[in-house]
Every structure is written in C-alpha cells, then in structure tokens.
UniProtKB/TrEMBL annotation:
This is dipeptidyl-peptidase IV. GO terms for cellular component: extracellular region; plasma membrane. Residues 477-658 form the Peptidase S9 prolyl oligopeptidase catalytic domain. Signal peptide: none annotated.
Length: 684
C-alpha cells in the first residue's frame, strides 16, 4: 500500500517522536473504547512506512510512544511487548483469554478506566507501570450474533457467540496486580517486578485498582488508587521504584455514599523555594469537589479551592509561573467557567467574565504562555487564541459564521433553563425545549427526556446540536415540549445531593421525575393528558420505574436498552451504588422493575426497545422485564416490544438507529392524537 493511502486510512496519529510517527489503520471495534488495529511507523524524513510488527493481522490492542526516545509499548493477544529502535521484545508470556497485561478486561474498561489501556511510561521513559488482570473464576456471559457481522450476505445457520467474562453483582471479580518494567534494561534482560501491597486486608482479593500516575521528575515514584470492592473506601498507594516497595500515603472513608475514580492526579514537583514535592488531585471530602495540593510522600494537603461549588477538571499546570488552570461550577452547577489559581498563594483569577452565563473549555500551549479558549454554549460556540498576559484575543480561530448563516434560515426551538424549588428544600435543574412557534395560549404535549444516573449531568448550558429533539419540537404535527430534569443523585451539586441514592437506586430519582411532571402539568401551555417519558440505558431504567409507580401523570413510556434488575448488571457499577447483594438484599428487591399496575393503567402504552448484541446492558434485562409484565397480565395493546438484531448498547447495526428514532416519533405522534375524555385530578 502507498504511504498516502496508509496515512489516509489512519484515524489518528497517536504520538510523534522526533523522527517517527506511530499511527493505526484497519480498525475492528471491540467494546466501548477498545479496538484492534494494525500499527505503522512513518519516518518523516524518508517518507517510509514500516509495520510495527511484520506479521500483524489487525490484532494489536494498544500501542504508545515513550515520552523519551524511539520506544513503543504495545499489547498483542493480551501480552506486553516493547519496540525499541526496530527491535521487538516480548515482556510477558501469560496473556490469553483470562489474563490481561497492559490492557483492561471488559469491566475495567467500562467501569473503572473508561479507556483501552492500563500501562503508563515514567516521565523519563525508563520504566513502565502496568496492570495484570486475571479473570479466572469470573462467570461468563454469552452474547449471540445472529448475523455474525454480515452486511450483505446471508446469516449463518448458527449464530456466532461471544463469551465475555462479565462479573455480575456479588459474583467473582477479576484480580489485579501492579507491575513495573525496567525499560532501560530491555536490551539485555526482562526485569518485571510485581509490587506487593496490602490495602484492605479483609478483602484484598476483591481490591480494585483505579487511577495510576507517575509523581516524579524521572521515575522515582508512581502512585495508584486502591478501592475496596464496593468502592466506598480508598487508599492511595505510593510505590518507591528503586526499592520496589509501597506504602499507603492517603486514605478515605466514603461509606456515606461512594468514591469516584477521578483520573485527576497531576505531578507538580516543588513549589516556590521549598523542597517538598507535590501532586494535584480532586477530592470531595468536604462535601464539594475541590482542588488540593498533596505532598508526594504523604502529609496534610493544601486546599487551593473551596466553597459550595465544584471543580470539574484540571486543564493545565504551569510550573514556571506556579499556576493551575481549571474549570468549575462556581457561577452555577450547569455552567463551566475558566480560572487560574496560584500554587503558593492560593490567589484565584477568572479568565472569563463570571457574570456571563455559559460553559467554556481551554487548551494550553506546552509552556503555558498561550491558550485556545472555547466557548461551548449555550449559544453557538466559538474559539479564540489568547496570550496569558492579555484579556484581548490575539485571533478568532473559529466564529462559526457559516453555521450561524445556515441556521438563520430556519425557525428553531427555544431553549430555556429553570431551577425547580422542591418543597423539601432542594432544587432541580431543568432544560426545556419549546416549539419554534410557541404560543403560551395553546396546549402542547410534553416529552420528559431523563438520564438521571448517579453523578451524571444532562442539564448543562452547552450548545444543543440540532437533532431529533429539535425535530419533535418543530414538526407541526408533533410540537412537543421536551423537558430534561436532573434528579437527586446526579452530579455537580455536591456530595450530599448525589449520595442520597446510595443503596436505593430508582427511588428518589423516580419521585423527582414524577413531582417535576406534576409541576409541568400545571402550566397553562401543557396538555396534561399527553405527557410522555423516554429514556435510554439508565434513562430507560428510570422511565420503567416511573411507569411502575402508577402515578397517573405519564401517558406514554418509551424505554430503550434499560436495566431492569441491578442483579443482572456488572458488579463494579452496581455495587458502587447499591453495595453487594448480601449487604443490601431489600434494596435490590425494591430497585428491580417488577410491579405491573402502572404498565396496565397507563393511558397510552409502553414501548420497550433493546439490542440483542448489547454487551453492556444485556438483552436479558428487557427479556425478563417483558416476561414479568406479560405474566402479570399487561395486555398486548399496552406494550410494544422491539429488538434490534446484533445491535450493541448504541443500537446502530443495520440501519437500526434510523428505525429506532422513526419508531419513537411514530409513538409520539400516536400519543398526541390519542383521544381522551378524562383529565388528571391535579390539572382540574
């Protein structure tokens, strides 16, 4: 293949060294984040392209440059390899179906790292930290593929079956070890050390390793988060690389809720004229997520931010100027403003107008002298280039003029944001999409569109891309008001607000959605006889629980890829919020969707959709839910069921997405035109 063809096939160059560029082609998707590919090395000077491995067959799982020198770490067939100046050395030999070196198994990829690698080079490239996971004893779930990936050919006589080691609630989890490779010795010997540590003596077999970060100028120390099985206790373990030993330098009890794997640690080094080395991290131990400066070797942290608001991300550490740039919700929980804080003095400075509603992001130059400021909404986004020494942009990089001109030709819905004050003393953030020709004297049907999961946030003041929700608000034959409510348990409103749902998923979220719908039903422009709800994944679960309550406020339920029973879901997510089945049997019973009266009594009907190839929320959830409802006597006119052959959690296989949204739209049209002679009692 010609160089130009290979480069055009690459989705993204991973990282350039001084002379070479590593890139991937011929991708095959695995799970949400992971994929297999061929990797190639492109020499910028000669223009030549060489395969990373001569006999590769699109079977490389991950590859990454060392930060120093022409060294690459890569994983193939779950074994770790090092490529150095053209020579490949195999580091591990035990990789296989049940053992993973440098890449996560399914549950770690989905629930802990949200990524496809578990290996990290030291800053000087001399060492590589990596995790080894062993799934022996983890139960297997089999996903059938009836089309076996065929797009035009006939389906095979027997389905293709994918067996996934998938730990469900209270089942065996994979075990994990922390390892160090001396990359500097790779030419002469393979020196891998498993680092011993004891974090939770009572259940170290169920220990979970989360974030890993080098906290060193060269390779002196690396740190990792260790959680107990149900992720409400945390210890940070510091590894002394030279000695091959470890010690606990921080610990936290979060048994009032759960503890998140923040993936936020960044090394700082010394501050001012001192000789103590520090790193940055986020913590919500005060009740709000804030930025702290922690001594590497342990000791009391220094709070860099504080208040009843939350830091959402660390963008850049400027060591030379001793500044940290970050985003926070200081103005409002639905917004993100850009700030800088001084590491030594704690002096804070806003880089955008704090009186202006909106959400911003930023990307900084390597040395921190310049940054690209991105305005993300709620109006049309733009990007500007700034010097840190000026409040005037040096250049507008993108003002989206073309988009503005294109959208000006259309009548678009109006988007409004609200805060609902609950009589119990808390508030809920709400986003409302109103039809383009909205007339407050008319009556409109409403679609509630929640997600509602723990720590999530749907109501944010970012630009809303024109899509299906705009369509159902704009189509003259539909004209739905679309309402999204962030219930209790969702994120960025403090630890107490999100921890309330611990051990009782589905309860408070449902109460808040029903209460909000009743509030909306009182509005003069709402047709209270036609209030629908639709949700996907956790939103599908929440929609199911809302219908189950038999509240009478909702007239149509549309449920896509839902959880129906947390016992069927993976251990690392479900147990984080619900704890184990042994610890919380009543909670699991109450959280399952099992009551039928609301499904029987809904004025309209219920649609249940699911992909049969869903490796995340298994088709089992909908299969059991439908059987439960049928057995309980829910009549066929009240329940439609649609499966999507071989589609995963995204429901995209074989034009499934188009079918799905057409089906949802048809249901909304039918609901709007459903005749009724009665009115709900609270709207009289």
């Amino acid at each position: 293949m010609r160089t130009s063809a290979l480069l055009s096939a690459a989705a993204l160059p991973l990282l350039p060294s001084q002379e070479n560029v590593l890139f991937a082609a011929n991708y095959t998707k695995q799970y949400r984040h992971s994929y297999f590919a061929n990797y190639y090395i492109f020499n910028r000077e000669s223009g030549s392209v060489a395969p990373l491995v001569a006999d590769q067959t699109a079977d490389i799982q991950y590859a990454v440059w060392s930060p120093v020198g022409d060294t690459i770490a890569f994983v193939r067939n779950n074994d770790l390899y090092i490529w150095k100046s053209g020579t490949v050395t195999r580091v591990t030999n035990d990789g296989g179906p049940d053992v993973f070196n440098g890449v996560p198994d399914w549950v770690y990829e989905e629930e802990i790292f949200g990524d496809r690698f578990t290996l990290w080079f030291s800053p000087d490239g001399e060492y590589l930290a990596f995790l080894r996971m062993n799934e022996t004893g983890v139960p297997t779930y089999t996903v059938p593929y009836y089309m076996a990936g065929q797009t035009t050919s006939m389906a095979p006589p027997y389905p293709k079956e994918l067996e996934i080691r998938y730990p469900k609630v209270s089942e065996t989890n994979p075990t994990v070890t922390f390892n160090l490779l001396d990359v500097g010795k790779i030419s002469s010997s393979i020196d891998v050390k498993e680092i011993p540590f004891t974090a939770f003596a009572e259940d170290d077999r169920d220990l979970i390793i989360g974030e890993v970060a080098w906290v060193a100028d060269h390779h002196e120390n690396v740190i990792f988060r260790a959680f107990n099985r149900v992720q409400d206790k945390e210890k940070l373990v510091l590894v002394d690389v030279a000695a091959g030993t470890s010690k606990v330098v921080r610990e936290r009890d979060g048994t009032d809720g759960w503890l998140d794997d923040n993936i936020a640690i960044q090394y700082v080094g010394t501050v001012g004229s001192g000789n103590i080395k520090y790193y940055l991290d986020l913590s919500d131990h005060t009740g709000w997520t804030h930025l702290y400066l922690y001594p590497v070797q342990g000791g009391e942290p220094k709070a860099l931010t504080q208040g009843e608001w939350e830091v959402t991300s660390i963008l850049k550490i400027d060591v030379e100027r001793e500044l940290v740039y970050y985003l926070s919700t200081e103005r409002h929980s639905t917004e993100r403003h850009l700030y800088a804080v001084h590491l030594a003095t704690g002096e804070k400075k806003a880089l955008v107008d704090t009186k202006t509603t909106g959400s911003w992001g930023a990307s900084f130059s390597t040395r921190g002298g310049y940054y690209v400021l991105s305005y993300n909404g709620p109006s049309i986004p733009y990007q500007e280039l700034y010097s840190i020494n000026s409040t005037t942009p040096l250049q507008t990089l993108n003002d989206n003029t073309a988009l503005k001109e294109k959208l000006s030709a259309y009548k678009l819905p109006t988007i409004k944001y609200h805060e609902l004050q609950h009589p119990d003393g808390y508030s809920l953030n709400v986003k409302e999409i109103l039809p383009p020709n909205f007339d407050p004297r008319k009556k409109y049907p409403v679609l509630f569109d929640p997600y509602g999961g723990p720590g999530a946030q749907q109501v944010t003041k970012v630009y809303t891309v024109v899509g299906w929700r705009h369509y159902i608000a704009s189509d003259p034959e539909l004209e739905y008001v679309v309402v999204t409510v962030d219930n209790r348990g969702t994120g960025f409103k403090g630890r107490a607000f999100r921890s309330l749902v611990t051990r009782q998923l589905g309860k408070l979220e449902t109460e808040d959605q029903v209460w909000a719908a009743k509030e909306w039903a009182k509005k003069s422009y709402v047709d209270s006889n036609h209030i629908a709800m639709w949700g996907w994944s956790y939103g599908g679960y929440l929609t199911s629980k809302v219908i189950e309550t038999n509240s009478g406020v909702f007239s149509l339920g549309m449920i896509t890829a839902p959880v129906s029973d947390w016992r069927f879901y993976d251990s690392m997510y479900a147990e984080r919020y619900m704890k184990t089945l042994e610890m919380n049997p009543d909670g699991y019973k109450e959280s399952a969707v099992c009551k039928s009266e609301g499904f029987k009594n809904i004025p309209g009907d219920v649609l249940i959709q699911h992909g049969t190839g869903d490796d995340n929320v298994h088709f089992q959830h909908s299969a059991v839910l439908v059987d439960t409802l049928m057995l309980a006597g829910v009549p066929p006119q009240k329940m439609d069921v649609q499966w999507f052959t071989d589609s995963d959690h995204n429901i995209r296989f074989h034009a499934a997405t188009t079918f799905l949204y057409k089906q949802l739209t048809g249901k909304l049209f039918a609901e709007k035109n459903r005749k009724t002679e009665t009115r709900h009692q609270w709207s009289m």
